[in-house]
Amino acid sequence: MIFESAKQMADAVRPAAAVNGDQLTVTSVAALPPDVIDRLAWTAAFGATAEVKGTARWLVRSLAAAAGVRPASIHDLYVAMGQGAVGGFTVPAINVRAMAYDTARAVIRAARTLDAGAFIFEIARSEIGYTEQRPHEYAAVLFAAALREGFRGPLFIQGDHVQTNAKKYNSPERDKELETLRALIREEIAAGFYNIDIDTSTLVDLDKPTLDEQQEVNVSLAADFAAFIRRVEPEGVTVSVGGEIGEVGGKNSDVHELHAYMQGFNRKLKARGPYVGLSKISVQTGTAHGGFINPDGTVRTDVKIDLATLDELSRVARADYGLGGAVQHGASTLPPDAFDAFPRVGACEIHLATDFQNMVYEHPQFPADLKAEMYAWLREHATEERKPKDTEEQFLYKARKKALGPFKRRMWGIDAARRAAIGASLEERFTFLMTQLKIAGTAGAVTQCVGVPHV
Fold this sequence. Notes:
single chain; 455 residues; alpha/beta
């Protein structure tokens, strides 16, 4: 499955393109055999050397670009939403953790069926670690999936929760922590992540007496990172930058905090230079990453989202600050009948992650022996995830994301029939969510609003 050398890859793509040194001349992407795309995706993730992996990633990106699939920023679409030129839908931002190639292919199939263009692939700083997917690998796998499924158009890839670690920030490691984030941003943009969510909300201090004081560190650092992004973004690209009022899972946000954050952020960004600001703002309305877990390991379905607050925050974000709207996090584990509410209240984006991981683990075609081995690994290597009051089921539910990286290759290598069944179930779920979020037919709006420069 995996190519062993650059020459092997050059020979394999010859029906579609010719490799001459560091130049690729594409003659017919349609002539590229599907199994070659599969092998390039595998090699991009698991190649034996950095050279082999890098060559696979370069070939995938180049072939995708020739097919009209390029990395893009959703900034201008959100500006159009803020101006009322487009709207009525909520963009799903999908975190691909498990079986990345098969999951991404399922997303693309659902989007093609619905003629949807307004969707995002994303990965958070924390996920990069425990899923063992660095940005260049992640992007290459997504582009391979788009090629494999015949997708055409801009592909939005996002750095989710580019987040400060509060403990490290409030320690002698502060400068190192900030440079680590800047290095991650550079790496993500180089890989085609033209959408970055800055999350310094971990540093909001609710013990301070005024809203401005509570948000001071949050807005100062967010402005620093936004200015840094503008300095390193490619020519012709305006990276979509998101901010965050308060940490997801904590206190619900309100309109006063929105004003305090946006006014503080805009003031501080202006002091740093004539930079383009945010396109959206993330808020907390009652959800939690991963959902709320019952003692038997099932997810609570009685979570109440403060839709009135989400509606108000989205409206104010558009009317007063020209943003696309508010962003809802931690929503994938909500009951199915909850999702059509988000377009109604004007949320511009919704982040969806854990439920797709759950579907893979709990699918009837997921090998029971592999799952047992992964759980045994967690009991030995993920003990830090176990809280004193956790049942065994709660511990395994919360910890099992940590096994995705160490068992990544094993999961990719599940036999084809099982992977196809899991992929079909995921595609059905993505189709349902995209329909509920009203992004069917948005390929036209994306084409109208989003420019895709040749970088």
